[in-house]
Specification:
three-stranded antiparallel β-sheet; alpha+beta; 3 strands; 48% helix; 4 helices; 21% strand; DUF1902 domain-containing protein
């Protein structure tokens, strides 16, 4: 399965999506709050998002999936 990273990070309401490249379905959506948390943790590297190196992109997609799932599993009071 291959994925496409659709990131608009320089907007007033930044977002990042991971899309299934064969269907176009959205697998992960991260908004401003989640993106800020990723940046604070050092897990979002803008240079890595712009690379064409498959192994770097694969690791970035993996980390974004893991972050998204871990965030979804947090109790509601800890999300904000």
């Amino acid at each position: 399965m291959t994925y496409l990273i659709d990131a608009w990070l320089d907007r007033p309401q930044p977002y990042l999506r991971i899309l299934d490249s064969s269907t176009g379905n959205t697998c992960v959506t991260l908004d401003g709050e989640a993106l800020e948390e990723l940046r604070e943790q050092g897990d979002l590297d803008l240079h890595e998002l712009g690379t064409t190196e498959p192994c770097i992109l694969k690791e970035q997609v993996r980390n974004l999936f893991l972050f998204s799932y871990a965030r979804a599993l947090r109790p509601l009071e800890k999300r904000s």
